[in-house]
Amino acid sequence: MQELTTIGESHFWDTLQYLAGFVLVLCVLVFLWLMTLLIGFLFQKGWVSGRNTEAPAPDPAAAGERPIADSADPRTLAVIAAAVYSFYDEPVRVIAIQRASADWSSEGRRQIFGSHRIR
To answer: Which H/E stretch holds residue 10?
Structure first.
């Protein structure tokens, strides 16, 4: 009968050690979660900034670009402005819109054709 008690007590202490380790891991995870919440709160309130918000907007006339009204459909401009607003979550001013070059599509074709085996 004594052997069963000894085995039972040993099993209890082993289980308690595993439980203590599990609780420690959970406490560390909760601490990391709270720290990320705090950092996110600081960024949202503007106390910490990763970018310079005081930068002046570039003048499109000085860069020699066409005015936006001449370059695109008003509906397209509205969609682009809405996408930029949803990304920055603050009012923005679209200064210029330029077409993407065809270099990306030709690079994609080159990679696809390069991956084919020549017989």
So the answer is: helix 2-45
The torsion angles phi and psi of 90, rounded to 5 degrees, stand at -155, 155
Q: Cα–Cα distances in Å, from 87 out to 101, 104, 105, 112?
A: 23, 24, 25, 32
Q: Can you tell me the distance from the alpha carbon of 34 to that of 40, in angstroms, rounded to the nearest whole number?
A: 10
Q: What are phi and psi of 117, to 5 degrees?
A: -85, 130
pLDDT in tens for each of the 119 residues of the chain? 455 555 556 788 888 889 999 999 999 999 999 999 999 888 888 776 655 555 556 555 555 555 555 556 778 888 888 888 888 888 877 777 776 666 777 888 888 888 877 76
DSSP sequence for 80-95: HHHHHHHHHTS-----
**Nearest Cα to 88, choosing from 56, 42, 53?**
53
